[in-house]
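Reproducibility note. Readers wishing to regenerate the assembly model reported in the main text can use the exact inputs given here. Chain order matters: entities are listed in the order in which they were concatenated for prediction.
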Amino acid sequence: MHKLRTERRWIVAAAALAALAVGAKGADADEPGPGGARPMVPKNGAEVYEVYCQVCHMAGGKGAAGAARFPALAANARLGTAAYAIYMVDNGKAGMPGFKEALTPAQVAEVVAYLRTHFGNAYAEPVTASDVQAMRGQ
Amino acid sequence: MEQAQGRPTRRQLMHAIGLIGGTAAVYQMMTTFGHAAETRFDGPPQLTGARKGARVVVLGAGLAGMLAAYELRKAGYQVKILEFQQRAGGRAWSLYGGDRYTEMGGAAQDVRFAKGNYLNPGPWRIPHHHRTLLHYCKAFGVALEPFIQLNHNAYVHSTEAFGGQPMRYRALAADFNGNIAEILGKSIDQKGLDQQLTAEDLDRLKEALRGWGLLDKDMRYRGERASRSRGWALPPGGGVNGAPKPSEPYAFGEVLKSGIWANLAFFMNHEFQTTMFQPVGGMQKIGDAFARQVQGLVVHGARVTRLMQDKAGVTVTYADTLSGQVKTEAADYCVCTIPLTVLSQIETNLSEKMTAAINAVPYSSSVKIGLEMRRRFWEEDQEIFGGHSFTNQEIGLISYPNSGFFSNGPAVLLGAFANGPGGYHLGGMSPAERIEAALAQGAVFHPEAYRKEFLNGASVAWSRVPWVMGCCARWNEESRRDHYQTLVAMEDRIVLAGEHASYVGCWMEGALLSSIDAITRLHKRALEA
Ligand SMILES: Cc1cc2nc3c(=O)[nH]c(=O)nc-3n(C[C@H](O)[C@H](O)[C@H](O)COP(=O)(O)OP(=O)(O)OC[C@H]3O[C@@H](n4cnc5c(N)ncnc54)[C@H](O)[C@@H]3O)c2cc1C
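Running the prediction on these inputs yields the following structure tokens for the assembly.
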């Protein structure tokens, strides 16, 4: 999880998106522009959670409700199936964006392992980067 | 103008083309010049003659929903809008002093801005070619003023360049262009471009590089010529010591590292070109103006939980957010403008294909932070009037107020517009932590004044906004191909509308264009039924 590498991933991802923009994406969305290209780079599962997940799933994985819900990840039996959690983090669904472009396989494995062993979840079986790579077909 | 000499003007060209090729050629030429095809808007829809008693229920009182209601009522429909919030306008919203805002997760903020000050948490700028929005702003009496999009005197900051010192946009932009011009000029002299261009074109290109890149007679970027754009070491004055002293261009390697090219490209995007506008007094004024046009039609505090249709009509179930009481609303047709993030969790009997489309579009996650400062130090100390200073830190930029120039008293600065990873990270913080991060990062631009003049702040993390749970829909090539046509197609009695149902995503214009298209098709179907 080298800093420059992750930063480059974002720059490359942004450039790729911009390249796709012709026709497919439509007009350029209202965005801050080129700022923010050097975000904090999380070093472990707890930090990945804090940087990328906490905004929706809340501190402690409590979840939240508004016009609809962010599911709680605390005491969530579905985390027992690591493949399901990996799939959700990589691909997202509906109100949850996918993080395949943003996170390395190691980062995904770390955050999933973190969730499985915190917030009232106790699934000790390890989750590895190669599990994530396998699901990504790499 | 030196450069224009000997060239035909645009009008002369058009005239000549008109003589040669007739109107089709003129039209094509106009399009090439970017004159004709600026917008899809060719006036408000002219819907008339709805069947007597036909009812439409509109879900959501954002701009898409309110425009649908306004135009459909004009066409003769009985219209009702169900809206989750106690306010109308949706994402066209401002926070003012005295407002209390509670985000998902329960953190509440009491906004303490002085009277007249505000934060636009969402939309804040309007391109001059967003003709639908501009049309309705005029029709509904919204006063607009300029939004200062490009300010050459604002800063660009990168932790990777110039030892982390912010530099003026003007100097970086001039140095970037100037160096490119000088390098290309040398390459011409060294026959580097002989394969690509004719000798004649090379001469023309060299002249162009000299003019555009601000090169001197020796094709060098330096000295007085460069200083006229990048700024002087000692600016021109009056009297005895009036003569200016030229400045030294920065090292090109640092200029490249600063990422200034990305800023130049940003300002070239059609949606971000000057002239841009903002409503006087905050974006909520647009929400208010639309709300005045649909007065009496909106049921506030109605959280839609279920949307069903059959041969006889549409039935919407909603919970009153204050009393918790569950109610239903029946209609012949439904225009649903609820953001997809929320809609994906509402029970419907829409087709599988449509449900898949609703689930397929992720939303971005941005954060805006307003910081009220005791005085306009950016104007008083740095001569920055509106515009943005960019940084590669998570806050993305800070942006200066576009009105009230030279006034005394507190003013609100946009302390962050974070997106991507920065948007997630800042969004996951508590409101107090966000303010602290904004002060720590933004101080790089105004180290003496930033913390000293800070009074109070407010922040909005769009993923935690209870009624949208995200910023805007993000389509890509794949989702457009697989789901867009399904999403916008009218399914029996229900049609979706909103920014997500357009190719002008994350713009109010997209919400309006989508709405007009949806109700035009709804009206046609209702008349054919
Ligand atoms: C950070 C940011 C910056 C932006 N910048 C710009 C800009 O500079 N210029 C620009 O033109 N556009 C900008 N936009 C985009 C613009 O805000 C949107 O495109 C537009 O306002 C969307 O209008 P809408 O009617 O489609 O949706 P909304 O305005 O979101 O309306 C949807 C309505 O549905 C209601 N609702 C949700 N759930 C339910 C439910 N269950 N029951 C009942 N009602 C419900 C909501 O409360 C809301 O009022 C920006 C957006 C963001 C987030």
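We highlight two features of this model. Residues 1-22 of chain A have pLDDT under 50 and may be disordered. The first strand of chain A starts at residue 64 and ends at 65.
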